[in-house]
Amino acid sequence: MGFRRTRCPHCKGKLEAGQRIHPECIDAYAEAEGAKAERKRLKQERMAARVEKAEIRRRKDAAKPRAKWLSECQDIINKIVRLRDKHLGCCSCDRGPGWDGQWHASHLRSVGAASAVRFHLWNIHKGCSICNKHLSGNLAEYLPRIRARIGDEKVDWLYTQNQLVKHDVEYLKKFKRVMGRRLRRIEKRNN
Ligand SMILES: [Zn+2]
Ligand SMILES: [Zn+2]
Question: What is the CA(56)–ligand 2 centre distance, in A?
Answer without folding.
Answer: 42
